[in-house]
Amino acid sequence: MSLTTPARTKMGSKLMALTLAAGLLAGPIAVDAAPAEAATKKCAVKMSNSKPRQYSNTWVNVSKVGSKSKVETIAHYKTTKTKKKATPSKKGKASLKYYISGATPGKAVKVTVTAKKGKTTWKCSTSFKPVKKR
Fold first, then answer.
1. Pick from 134, 132, 77, 74: which is nearest to 108 by CA?
2. What residues are paired with 6 via a beta bridge?
3. Among 80, 112, 82, 78, which Cα is nearest to 99's?
4. 37 or 130, higher pLDDT
5. Strand pairing of 109-117 and 57-63?
6. C or N terminus of the chain, fewer CB within 10 Å?
7. Do 97 and 59 form a contact (C-beta atoms < 8 A)?
8. What is the per-residue pLDDT across 67-90, written as a single tens digit (0 to 9) for each?
9. pTM exceeds 0.90, yes or no
10. Alpha helices per DSSP H over 1-134
């Protein structure tokens, strides 16, 4: 046995219809709002020596990144990849040391740089060509 009277059922139906209509009208506004997107910026990078000898050191000098960001460099050698990580100075600079070992002479080694801080990402790249040790 139902305690609901026909008048209350009609009122409830109208209220539900009104709520649904309001939701449909408001729905697209929330859907159309653009999500906060991460910003990608360019950084600057330069090798201390773009033609280092085998079994020597060269530095990847990164600049124009956010202070206290997390910098990662990856050197893409012929048969392997080497990652290095650093935190830049307050001026947005970092220097990462790479030991060249017996890298293939004359084969370009691409170095990719990615720095992240919050929703901001900086990207840049450079390369170097090892030369044979004398």
1. 77
2. none
3. 82
4. 130
5. unpaired
6. N
7. yes
8. 999 999 999 999 999 999 999 999
9. no
10. 6-32
